[in-house]
User: Fold these one by one.
Assistant:
Number 1:
Amino acid sequence: MTTLAARALLAVVFWPSLFFFWFLGPFVFFLLSTTSSEVCARLETRVQFLAAANGAIPMLALQNLIYAVPIVCLVLWGRLAPDPARARHIVTCIKLFASAAVVGALWEYGSSLVCDGYGQPFFSTAWQMTSYLPIVSLAVNVPLYVLAFSLGRAFSTREDVAEDEASPPA
């Protein structure tokens, strides 16, 4: 019975965190972590742009810690109900999450450096290329979301309900 309660508690944490952190969070954190256009107009030197971009690093670290909550839930579910096939999928989720975190951090940091075009003369064109990272991020996040959602559904569904759905009606 304690395993069922632990799985239910993880479901209560997993589903809201998946929705609020993964689906709504990127918009909120992007707005908070990048330098606003009002600040950009006042930045005149390379040092000022670097200071503004480096000021976003703590927010990026916090963002990735918060985004890890659904992954932690999947890992804990995997410990409560071990299954080799699901364990491989969880490892894939972790790899995709790490890739998405790196791509997202580079995109947001690069956006802070470029700062809506005002900082372009100060930095190399490599930082301007970060404007293409949302495409890479989408290519990584779509399979991550689908895999995490399907694993969450599999873990949060009771076994007796799953067995009833699998067997055809008599």
Number 2:
Amino acid sequence: MTTALSPTTPGTPTGPVRSVRDIVPADLWDKQVGLLMRDYPYDSVMAARVLGQGYAYLLTAMAKRGRHLGLAPSKLVDIGVHTIILDTVAFAELCEKHNDGHFLHHVPDIAFKHDGSVMKTAHLIATEGYDVDLPLWADAADCGPCHPGNDSH
């Protein structure tokens, strides 16, 4: 179950919600859900939630490329991100199509940044029109694991 961000949040769209399932081919989706179920104690529902938020995060990062927004996923969403980027051929194709051919590098930091960037990122994803599964973002509401300020995530 997903939870929409408050309609009073500035910049939150009022139109239809975009679905990552319209972007990700069904066979790739099923494969990556299976990878999450293999590697984590997730059932298919939880794996799909984590994967969907991972895609929403990456697609938002690509849409905002060059803006140095310091986006950061939560710890749970980052698991979905890793599953996506480790499937390197499919990830390169995603970058080609949705990031103007630029590869979106992953540059993790050792220390977590405690600057509210995770929830800011969740709100930005909502402004891009994606549904935000808030319980998956709440595990790291004030910190994120990724390097801020450049064209990486």
Number 3:
Amino acid sequence: MDIPDSGFESQEPRFALPVDSEHKATVFKLFSVAKPHMRAFHLSWISFFSCFVSSFAAPPLLPIIRDNLNLTATDIGNAGIASVSGAVFSRIAMGTLCDLFGPRLASSSLILLTVPAVYCSSIISSPTSFLLVRFFTGFSLATFVSTQFWMSSMFSTRVVASANGLAGGWGNLGGGATQLVMPLVFALIRDIGAVKFTAWRIAFFVPATFQMLTAFAVFIFGQDLPDGNFNSLKKSGKKPKDAFKKVLFFGVSNYRGWVLALTYGYCFGVELAIDNIIAEYFYDRFNLKLHTAGTIAASFGFANIVSRPGGGYISDLVGRRFGMRGRLWVLWTCQTIGGVFCVILGRVASLTVSIIVMIIFSIFIQAACGMTFGVVPFVSRRSLGVISGMTGGGGNVGAVITQLIFFTGSKYSKETGITLMGLMIICCTLPICLIYFPQWGGMFCGPSSKKQVSEQDYYLSEWNSVEQEKGSHHSSLKFADNSRSERGIKNGALSTPATRPSDDAPPPHV
């Protein structure tokens, strides 16, 4: 994949890719490992992939594990909730840590901290210990936030959704890969000579070791920003130190972040819920073999090869033509269609039709995930990590609520739960209509003609006059200039010159 630039960004000789004024890459070369942009891309998705594999290594082996540990349906449901609930808090914290310390250190540290939980999966002996290892392993899913933050720091506004979509989507592939790989690893170990109740325990050493190796790779070979790591840039004065309270404040006080957190809970959150139950669903409902059920379940996650990246690419494509309003419209449309197919999935009784509907559902719901992070980078410049963490955490909250309501205990059959989950997707996608950027507009109306608000006004409102006098706002000013493309071609994104507001007249909070 080679996404072309728009033809007017600057070229910096010391970078392998063309860059803009923030030194963010303006093209995306998929098969390049050029430092720092493309190397960050490959390190981020591979490390996130490893965390996904670890977090969902248990579900494809549940028919064996439940017999060994005497797990009830309630035990399995609670463990599924635990596997995604821990990441609710870790994702929010990860966003703040990325803002303050950089994605490289934040990501590698969390991955290493959760590796022991994966190894401990091999020694569990009760429903309680099964729940605990799934809970602590799930913390690693917060690396999604560092992945999205890293891509938003490395790629310009015109290709950022494509970069976010590919990194997040290929990382999510771990959810499909583990459905396919873990049964094969289990079978291999069993065939070598281990009894089945020992083989599944040994199998967990594979994802644990893989996760540990990716943590070292991120720490050793990664770089936070195009110009260097956070620590060295702060020491040299090139990156001003920011205050934790203000970074947090401008994140949590921006309602757009909360709306995206809610809607992301019913695209990515649904994806997590499906990862937890889909193999068991096909195994029980259609009386399939373990490996067959795992292979079918893997196809849901493997759709991320094209679906989430495709969603990001479509968001960028529509954004270049119609601006932010176009991004919001395609996000709402795609996620709503995904909800419709989720309803259908719960209603069909044919194995073949169920597989086809599941794949269509997965494509739309995962594309919506990519489209969501086509909007997230524009919500706040100063608190990008916090907004990313809120949105990512919202995905896990959605998974917890969905799992708790529909897939825990025996209140609903799995097919009924899937149908009701689809209706919830449709309803919880509607708030996208409430997102409004004063400089660009929203789904149903453009920017106000009475009160002219520019990109500079919006992003510099996060910095007071004292901070602007110190020059802390310069990165936001550059981002504001580069984000003018969100007006769309029809609204003059390429024809209206950018202007800088004077430092002695700070913009109003918008």
Number 4:
Amino acid sequence: MRSAARLYAVQALFQMEVSGQTVERIVREFETHRFGEVLDEGEMAEGDPKHFRAVVDAAVNWQAKIDQLTDRALVAKWPIDRIDPVLRALFRAAGGELVEMDTPPKVVINEYVDVAKAFFPDGKESKFVNAVLDHMAREEKPAAF
């Protein structure tokens, strides 16, 4: 359920950025309509609403710090505002867990690499996500390594 909550958090952060809607409106929409939604392909995972809300809140509340962490993990020519918006949302969600929550960094890395694979099943993005999150985690929580 936490894995599904992470996927939903990335979707919510992406939707906030592209639509300009408030965090409250997006969270309410996801909790009311998206969790457990039945689609043609089958039923969506229920997700953990408490974890979803904690990840989104941490990503929003700590966005400046998270973006700085991400920028330091990226090469100089590719600041966070130049990367794919889905990846930007993913780094913010993962960064929220690294900065604000007690989730072990290795769990954060593994979980969000899996999220990257869900969004980019045929690409190299998961390896990129792994490298960036590893750098961010080592900077934010060096004692965990």
